[in-house]
Amino acid sequence: MKIADWPSMRLVIPLIGGILISDTIENTGTLTELLCCMLVPVLAMTFTSFLYGDKLARLYGAGLSLSFFLIGALLYSHSMEKVHVRWPDSKKSYTGIVTEWPLERKASYRLDLMLQDSCCYGKKIYLYVPKDSMAILTEPGHRVIFYGSVKEPSNEGVIGFDYASYLYRHGISGTLWVPSDSWRQLPASEKPGLRVKAVRMRRHMFEKYREWGLDGDGLAIVAAVSLGEKRDMDDDLKELYSDSGTSHLLAVSGLHVGIMCSFLYFLFPMFMNRRGLSWIRELIVMTAMWGYAVLIGLPVSITRSLVMFTTLSICRTVGRENSSINSLAFAAAVMLLFDPTALYDIGFQLSFSAVLSILLFEPLISGILKFRSKIAMYVWNLISVSTAAQIGTAPLVIYSFSGFPTYFLITNLFAIPIIFVIVSLSMVLWGVCWIPVLRIVVVKLLSFLIYVINGIMKLTVSLPASRIELTIDEPWKVWAIYAIMFLLYRWIVEKRIRRFVQALSVVAIWCTVVLLLSFWTL
């Protein structure tokens, strides 16, 4: 097993390296210009070595990796340069378009705005306003005028979390709070953009669920797993699924995409056995799935899954096999090229680490035991997948949340099949919504299943030591753990003792660094 077996991995690794290096340097216009100047000769060298074929194959590989490294650094630097704004100290009047539904806080509503003023056109800010009727009636696409002093994101009042960097990496250039008499709505934009239309449609579908009889936790979970709408989930419900190790099931991800694709493939069986026409079936299914993804706002989990599914679909159409790991790396490269700041999104990190870990470790784990019973084998496969996913996400979970769910195997064993049924029933609901009797039956089934799964989560969390408090305080330690895990994996697969020695070397370097830092702080 070599990295060369996964060509896309040889591109995404230097791309990530460039983003990480760029993040450690203060992003300025000078840095962007320098990276552009460096990228031009490297691309020229890479293209020249490509024309010479095998004679300069190594130079071509090195040039391609260096090109993607510089591209990653350049894209991230350019993204940060656009987000950072020097706001005037004095108060000014601004106009912006609301891009999301108001988010309720303890003492205010948060409005996500995209500014329309010439001096800061396209910049995104968070506007906090008092709780009043005007805020409640605000919708995506509405224009807002306000008067105040926009501030750069800061960590004031925040302990143990770099809130300013978090906002910058999510494209937020500033924040401010204004009283009721310092803002008002203007007539809505005549032609709302595609994103605003998608947000409105998603909310319309959410209200349909409410109209059909779903409410409370049932409404929140069905909306999360079918629409990617989590804004109405309360903190207690999010914490319940996080502490039980099943929060990943609330994201529209590969499981949900697989269910929906299976339904669509079932609807178009006429092209299955006809040569030359299978591409029509693949095109219809992928077009429908990408349309659905745009409708729910292109969350990271479903985008990653769809890029993978699309790559595999193209390979099936042209009759070529493709590695799942190669497709995963390609999906990561595509997403980072479009949005390099996505690398710092915890959803992106957990999504890709979980899938990569499943692809690497699940075959090893599932091969440990074999059962003749199909039911026993099904249960063991669920345990294998869940264990592999938790292995891959454990360092990130501990670093981000300072803890780890102890009984994740138990909860996932029951939760995965139930979520599968919930997603399937949510699709069925849209198909039978025009038949009142069937619609009521499906809603009752959904409410019952959600009551059951929530009961399982609460019972598991109430068990002794359901959560282990652990801490990883530095990002480099996360990378070191992943390096050790990957080297141990290669040792198991390749049966080469040098991989085990390399893993021990990483441990030794870790201990050395910790000792040096300890003496440095004395």
Q: Could you outline the blueprint of secondary structure elements for this entry?
A:
Blueprint: H1 9-24, H2 29-51, H3 57-83, E1 92-98, E2 103-104, E3 109-115, E4 124-129, H4 133-136, E5 143-148, H5 163-169, E6 172-177, E7 183-186, H6 194-211, H7 216-227, H8 235-243, H9 254-267, H10 278-295, H11 300-318, H12 324-338, H13 346-366, H14 374-401, E8 404-405, H15 408-432, H16 436-461, E9 467-468, H17 475-494, H18 497-521
In short:
The protein is 63% helix and 8% strand. It has 522 residues and is α+β, with helices and mostly antiparallel strands. A hairpin with an 8-residue loop joins strand 3 and strand 4 (124-129).
Description of the structure:
- This protein has helices at 9-24, 29-51, 57-83, 133-136, 163-169, 194-211, 216-227, 235-243, 254-267, 278-295, 300-318, 324-338, 346-366, 374-401, 408-432, 436-461, 475-494, 497-521; strands spanning 92-98, 103-104, 109-115, 124-129, 143-148, 172-177, 183-186, 404-405, 467-468.
- The protein is globular.
- α6 (194-211) packs antiparallel against α7 (216-227), α15 (408-432) packs antiparallel against α16 and α17 runs antiparallel to α18 (497-521).
- β2 (103-104) and β3 (109-115) form a beta hairpin.
- The chain folds into 4 domains: 3-83; 92-192, Nucleic acid-binding proteins (OB fold (Dihydrolipoamide Acetyltransferase, E2P)); 198-468, no CATH class; 475-521.
- The chain has 522 residues and is of the alpha+beta class.
